[in-house]
Amino acid sequence: MKTENQKAWFFVLPVLLLVAFNALIPMMTVVNYSVQETFGDNVFFWQGLDWFQQILRSDRFHAALGRQFMFTFLILIIEVPLGIAIALSMPRSGFWVPVCLVTMALPMLIPWNVVGAMWNIFTLPDIGLLGYFLNHTLGINYDMTQDPIAAWVTIITMDVWHWTSLVVLLSYAGLVSIPDAYYQAAKIDGASNWAVFRFIQLPKMKTVLTIAILLRFMDSFNIYTEPFVLTGGGPGNSTTLLSIDLVKIALGQFDLGPAAAMSLIYFAITLLVSWLFYTVMTKDDQN
Amino acid sequence: MQKRTIVPIVYILFLMLPIYWLVAMSFKTTNEILSGFSLFPQTFTLENYATIFTDPSWYWGYINSIIYVSINTVISVAVALPAAYAFSRYRFLGDKQLFFWLLTNRMAPAAVFALPFFQLYSAVGLFDTHLAVAMAHCLFNIPLAVWILEGFMGGIPKELDETAYVDGYSFPRFFATIFIPSIKAGVGVAAFFCFMFSWVELLLAKTLTAVAAKPIAATMTKTASSAGYELGLLAAAGTLTIIPGAIVIYFVRNYIAKGFAMGRV
């Protein structure tokens, strides 16, 4: 049982100050932009909620949001089961464990723009390893700069390549923590592999899986650098995810007001979905 | 047993292919890369690496990155430790709301918040310093560190704290000499995640720096656009960005696997 202690606030204070400095002040600025119009020279006019209305009604925003949800949904349903499956089949002890862990963690440690550039070159039709193989060896017509479907397959594959290991590492850590006694008991009861997974392994992985799924949701929903470097949002607008569109408006057209309004709506959506995930996944712990 | 090991092997091969391609390209001349497909470098060259190690604007990129990533890791873990302790041991006014609010800070779209960040850090006179990037990265690293450490601390029985007080330990002494050593795996995991996310983040790092603290990833984008598209050089620089990370994982690999094991039983 936790004890009630208001002095615990002092322990939290440094974290609070540092995070608030970084979170609240920029947030205030964005809120400020979102209700004003400017023609430069730091002269601002009160605009009210016009930008919010304009964004919420625009087809462009709806299309980008739809692509964003599609992207996040696809990578979650691919990466989470795949990550768990790989973690289950990894060795539990011996020489191969560190080899697996180190090689699997490698993609996560590559700066995001390098990941984008690397996949761009890797998939070029005539000089990239994957692009050359698909086009010249298998005879599949694959060019992600021309074909929207190829572009989607490429950004999804890139994200699976980049982030499945996060799910693997966390699931594996959860699996390693299960004492042998549980497996022995299951064996005596004659439990099937599926039963062992469903009633022993999955519940024990729950805490770490919560971290993995929430992190993957938040990060994929805010993904910017990698798809931007890889496809630039193209061909056409087919891979223009929400944050790419946001930057196009904010820095490309320099419409700070609409961009700020859009990012607040975006933030609210992320917050709402994360809160739903968080509440559902930690529900049992509260009881 | 044999059949099972195929899955990790196939997965690792899949992970290694793009990395192999990057490394192979770093030993090619840009002309060879552009002239057509070749699985291995035909004219093996170390010129790309030589450029990076002799040109200060390149190698300082790495040094800058390492400096701010280290500062960030130290700050994040240091302030997250007491906070995580408070969350795992005590109930206090607004604790659950605060914990969730911390998590929400990973969700702000960095793309648009970059400009306010620039204004904020310019206003306090920290623009283009390592500290600015290190502090800005705290926004998403501290919540994660608190979250991870809280999980580890939750697994340490409260009796440990109580026994220490009965034995006459003061709180700071108990915390430093008994508590932290017993969750050192958790500290390792938290530090690894802070290192990783700070090392790979580019948007804020690029926005908050100009010359003096410019990260390697920003150096790469700039050189790629000004000096044509020098693929060989870019590949070599990219290859070198993997190395510090690989060293860090090598040292924390046991913590990652065994680390989470504690307290989850």
TrEMBL record, chain A:
One of its GO terms (cellular component) is plasma membrane. SUPFAM superfamilies: MetI-like (SSF161098). The chain crosses the membrane at residues 9-31, 69-88, 95-122, 160-183, 256-278. Keywords: Membrane, Transmembrane, Transmembrane helix, Transport. Coiled coil: none annotated. GO terms for biological process: transmembrane transport. It is a multi-pass membrane protein. Belongs to the binding-protein-dependent transport system permease family. This is Putative ABC transporter, inner membrane component.
TrEMBL record, chain B:
InterPro entries: BP-dep_ABC_trans_perm (IPR050901), MetI-like (IPR000515), MetI-like_sf (IPR035906). GO terms for cellular component: plasma membrane. It is a multi-pass membrane protein. Its main location: membrane. The keyword Iron-sulfur does not apply. The chain crosses the membrane at residues 7-27, 66-87, 99-118, 130-153, 174-200, 231-252. Belongs to the binding-protein-dependent transport system permease family. This is ABC transporter, inner membrane component.
